Amino acid sequence: MTEQALVPVKRDNTSSGSVSILGVAIRDLARLNKVAVTVARHGFGSLLERSPIRRLLFKDREVPEGDAELMSKPAAVRFRRLLEALGPTYIKLGQILSMRRDLLSADYIHELEQLQDKTPTRPFEEMAQVIEEGLGLPVEDLFAGFEEEPLGTASIAQTYRATTHDGDAVVIKVQRPGIEGVMRGDLDLLYLGAKILEATIDEMAIYSPSNIVVEFERALVQELDFSTELNNLVTARTFLDPEGGVIVPRPYPELSSRTVLTMEFFEGRPIRDLERGSERAREAVETVLHAGLKQVLHDGFFHGDPHPGNIMINDDDVVCMIDLGMMGSLSTKQREDLVTLILAAIANDTSTLARTLLSIGTPTRRINMAEFKAEIDRIRGEHLVVQSFGEYDSTAFSQAFVEAANRYGIKLASEYSVLVKASATIEGIIRDLAPDVDLIAIAQ
After folding, report:
1. Residue ranges of the alpha helices (H) in 28-143?
2. What sign for the dihedral angle of Cα 16, 21, 24, 26?
């Protein structure tokens, strides 16, 4: 059976696109009204008051007031809870936005990093239908054994354990039926909302929310096509160091499709379950750290979401990285720039730091280099001149650097957003499990 792929829609950023935007508003009026009410109840009704779509949605009625319990919370908390209330697409958007330190302040980033994907389990019969449509045969013909109770449930997929006819233990990731249609409608509404914000609130033009939606759509299209993750697994396995102690699951292309991904089952537990401060935790963290540095500086292909639940360890202390749907990539030039940055930081070379930081971004206006160097020197002195890892805070450094880049009109490549997020996640693992590991010495 032929699979219908979700492909990015060509978004029209010109005035001629207003017809399609109006069409979306009329077609999805009920859903749009529900979203608007939810936005208002979370304390963001002022955005609706300033929007011309208010007349379409509320006519002569008042925009609903914010919920009293919610209104007692900070705006960043209300924004996170708003995305959770709106559902899977908006949660995914929040998870992507959590990497955009160039757009959002630290309090918003902190809240978005806590977004929880609370999705009810779909019945096995529905998921089995997806497997049959994706692979062309009934489940019982494809696998020698299949456990109907899911291992995990998320907004896009559910995972199951199974056994192949060759006796291999595998995990099957199955896309939730109908999720593409839901997300397509949500993307249209998001784009509509973004265009309205840009047209009615002058300061929004600086952030270009419609372009953010377009970028989000590209990322979502990749995540909805499981062949992308399969290819990531194949690529990551070509870079594995046989002596490195880190593996990724072997994929099964013959049992995979756009909506079904079959991969090797790793018998282990999340690395976060290790005893904090133990020798085993320290060795595991060092293994992960060496692997991460190799991925970034040597391979140019790194895990974009290495949180503790995505890093497993077995009884033989073999570490396995799972969930490779989001990967980061760096060109040779970008990796060379990172090495130069590290060397310049070690050597306290502010001039080289400033020049390299300038080269990894795209200046949007002329920059006073003397002022820029002074700013970099201040950031270096505040965040990089430390005596130990315990004094080092990469998140604070990254935030300071991004804020400086914004002030001087330097637009950073999206690849660095993924890298900053991944680096902060790894640093968090170190602090939680083995704070005595000397990150600075290993990086040097």
Report:
1. 29-39, 45-49, 54-58, 68-71, 75-86, 88-97, 106-112, 124-135, 139-142
2. negative
Q: What is the CA radius of gyration of the chain?
A: 24
Nearest to 422 by CA among 55, 99, 65: 99
126-156 per-residue burial string, b: 16 or more CB within 10 A, e: under 16: ebbebbbebbeeebeebbeebeeebeeebbb
Taking a C-beta distance cutoff of 8 angstroms, is the pair 140, 108 a contact? no
Q: Evaluate the CA torsion angle 316, 322, 324, 330 in order and state its sign.
A: negative
Residue 210 host element (H or E): helix 209-224
CA 42 to chain centre: 24
For residues 312 and 400, give the distance between their C-alpha atoms in angstroms, rounded to a whole number. 32
Instruction: Give pLDDT tens digits for 349-376.
Output: 888 888 888 888 888 888 888 999 899 8
Using CA atoms, how far residue 45 sits from 64, 84, 94, 150, 274, in Å, is 7, 17, 19, 39, 45
pLDDT tens string 252-304: 999 999 999 999 999 999 999 999 999 999 999 999 999 999 999 999 999 98
Beta strands in 335-403 (DSSP E): 361-363
Residue with tokens 């696109």: 17
Q: Are 11 and 221 in contact (CB under 8 A)?
A: no
**Closest to 303 measured CA to CA, from 317, 279, 321:** 321
**Where is average pLDDT lowest: 16-30, 181-195, 280-294, 318-332?**
16-30
Residue 219 dihedral angles phi and psi, to the nearest 5°: -65, -40
**Listed residue (82, 26, 16, 83) closest to 53, CA to CA:** 26
Residues paired with residue 160 on neighbouring β-strands, in sequence order: 172
CB atoms within 10 A of CB 62: 9
The average confidence (pLDDT) of the chain is 84
What is d(CA 261, CA 171) in angstroms, rounded to the nearest whole number? 8
Closest C-alpha to 167, from 139, 145, 138, 147 = 145
Calpha distance 30→36 (Å, rounded): 10
C-alpha to C-alpha distance for 352 and 402, rounded to whole angstroms: 18
**Listed residue (398, 405, 323, 294) closest to 360, CA to CA:** 405
Q: Would you name the residues annotated as active-site residues?
A: 305
pLDDT-based confidence at residue 15 (cuts at 50, 70, 90): very low
